[in-house]
Amino acid sequence: MSEGVKCACEAANVGLYACAGGSNVGQMANKVAVELTKKGKGKIMCTVGVGGNVPGIIKSTEGTDEIIAIDGCALLCAKKSLERAGFTVDRHVILSELGMKKNKDLDLNENEINDIMAKVEEVLGI
Hints:
This protein is α/β, with parallel strands linked by helices. The protein has one domain (16-124). Helices cover 40% and strands 13% of the residues. It contains five helices and four strands, in the order βαβααβαβα. It has helices spanning 24-38, 47-51, 55-62, 77-84, 110-124, and strands at residues 14-18, 43-44, 66-71, 91-94.
């Protein structure tokens, strides 16, 4: 990596790397990362930039103290992208293991969001 590469989105103490796939659980994973960021529990980071080996995003990830991967389903796209890029995932959650059924409906309802958020915060201890 070039020494002149700068962080693309600044490093975070706790980086939140979410799936944002084409299903309800993928969209929920992204929503969870957004909400955790709003609550000050970490900072949403660019998972696809890690997978794409974008230099500034890789640099930002290198500066992150803790990496949390939030996957929608058992395919583990967020976790695998991080690991393939050489990063260690410190904490990991899979929404389909928290009772969310995967489907192609991209509309999320508030009750479902609140339920999953509570479960994620409990599992991650945040």
